[in-house]
C-alpha cells in the first residue's frame, strides 16, 4: 500500500477564457473543479493507474468536503485530519485559449491548530507501520513548524516505510535531513539546496551526488519542458520528453512524480520508471484538468522519450 501526505491540499478551479484583457469585463467560457494539492494529485495518479492508496493530511470545511468527494470517486481511501474552523483552500488556474497560455493563483491556506498537528503525527505513525511507500508532497499550511517534513519522514523511516519528498524552500532543506528514499526538486528548488543557480547539468549532477552520499537514494530533478535529470548511486541520466501541444501544464510535475512512484512500487528500474513517468506527464500537459492524463496516449508517446547518460 502507498500513502500520500498533503499538508495544504486544495480544490483546483479551472477557468477558461478566450484571453485576459486589461481593464475589461472578461467573459468566462467554462469552469471546472478538480483535485488540487500535490500529494492528493499523486493519489489521483496512482488510482488512475490502478493502484489502491490512502490519502492523509489536513482537510476541512465546504471545499474540503468537495475534495474528499472527488478523491472518493477515484476509490482513494481518505484518512484526513479535520481541524476545527479550517477551510481547505482554492487554487485558480486561468486558461487563455487564444494565446495558448495559462497561469495560476493560489490561496495561502488556514492555520492548523496544535491538537490537529499532533493527531496528524499519530496518523503518520499508524499508516507508515502498514504502508510500504509514503509520499510527502506540496506546500504546508500555516501552523506547522519548518521541520515538519523532517519529523514525519523520520517517523515513517523508523517504521521501515520507503519515503518520497517533493517540497520547496526551508521545508525541503529540513526535509532532506531525514534522508528520504527519493526527492523530486525542480531547478528552482535545486537552487535552494545548493545556494545558487547551477551553471550547467554537470554541476547539478555534482550536487545531486552529494545528496546521494548523504543517504538519499534517488534525486530526480525536473527541468520543465527540457525534461529531467535522474541521479542515483550508480547512474546519472537525462530524460528528454516528447514534443506535444500543451493545454495546461499545472500538475505535470505531480503526474511525473506519481507515475514514477507507481513503477518503482512495481519494481521497475529507474530508467523504466522515469521514461514511463515522462510519457504520462506529457499526456497530462495535453489535458485541461490538472489531474487528468490519457494512459493510451502516454503509451503511444513512450517511444518518443529519449534517455541519455550524463
Automatic annotation (TrEMBL):
Pfam families: PfkB (PF00294). GO terms for molecular function: ATP binding; phosphofructokinase activity; tagatose-6-phosphate kinase activity. One of its GO terms (cellular component) is cytosol. It catalyses: D-tagatofuranose 6-phosphate + ATP = D-tagatofuranose 1,6-bisphosphate + ADP + H(+). GO terms for biological process: D-tagatose 6-phosphate catabolic process; lactose metabolic process. It is an enzyme of class 2 (transferase). Its EC number is 2.7.1.144. Residues 11-283 form the Carbohydrate kinase PfkB domain. It comes from the Bacteria. Pathway: Carbohydrate metabolism; D-tagatose 6-phosphate degradation; D-glyceraldehyde 3-phosphate and glycerone phosphate from D-tagatose 6-phosphate: step 1/2. Keywords: ATP-binding, Kinase, Lactose metabolism, Nucleotide-binding, Transferase. Belongs to the carbohydrate kinase PfkB family. LacC subfamily. This is Tagatose-6-phosphate kinase.
Amino acid at each position: 500500500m502507498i500513502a500520500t501526505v498533503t499538508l495544504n491540499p486544495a480544490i483546483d478551479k479551472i477557468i477558461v477564457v478566450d484571453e485576459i484583457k486589461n481593464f475589461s469585463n472578461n467573459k468566462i467560457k467554462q469552469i471546472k473543479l478538480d483535485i488540487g494539492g500535490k500529494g492528493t494529485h499523486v493519489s489521483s495518479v496512482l488510482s488512475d493507474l490502478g493502484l489502491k492508496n490512502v490519502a492523509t493530511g489536513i482537510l476541512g470545511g465546504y471545499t474540503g468536503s468537495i475534495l474528499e468527494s472527488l478523491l472518493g470517486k477515484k476509490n482513494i481511501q481518505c484518512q484526513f485530519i479535520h481541524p476545527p474552523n479550517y477551510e481547505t483552500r482554492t487554487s485558480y488556474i486561468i486558461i487563455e485559449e487564444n494565446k495558448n497560455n495559462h497561469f495560476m493563483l493560489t490561496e495561502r491556506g488556514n492555520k492548523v491548530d496544535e491538537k490537529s498537528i499532533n493527531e496528524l503525527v499519530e496518523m503518520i505513525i499508524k499508516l507508515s507501520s502498514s504502508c510500504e511507500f509514503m509520499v510527502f508532497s506540496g506546500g504546508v499550511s500555516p501552523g506547522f513548524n519548518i521541520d515538519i517534513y523532517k519529523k514525519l519522514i523520520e517517523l515513517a523511516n523508523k517504521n521501515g516505510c520507503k519515503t518520497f519528498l517533493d517540497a520547496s524552500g526551508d521545508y525541503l532543506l529540513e526535509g532532506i535531513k531525514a534522508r528520504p528514499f527519493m526527492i523530486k526538486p525542480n531547478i528552482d528548488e535545486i537552487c535552494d539546496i545548493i545556494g545558487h543557480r547551477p551553471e550547467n547539468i554537470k554541476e547539478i549532477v555534482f550536487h545531486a551526488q552529494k545528496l546521494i552520499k548523504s543517504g538519499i537514494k534517488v534525486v530526480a530533478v525536473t527541468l520543465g519542458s527540457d525534461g529531467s535529470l535522474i541521479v542515483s548511486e550508480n547512474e546519472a541520466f537525462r530524460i528528454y520528453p516528447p514534443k506535444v501541444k500543451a493545454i495546461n501544464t499545472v500538475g505535470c510535475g505531480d503526474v511525473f512524480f506519481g507515475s514514477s512512484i507507481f513503477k518503482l512500487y512495481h519494481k521497475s528500474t529507474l530508467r523504466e520508471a522515469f521514461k514511463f513517468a515522462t510519457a504520462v506527464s506529457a499526456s497530462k500537459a495535453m489535458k485541461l484538468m490538472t489531474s487528468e492524463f490519457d494512459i493510451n496516449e502516454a503509451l503511444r508517446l513512450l517511444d518518443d522519450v529519449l534517455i541519455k547518460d550524463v
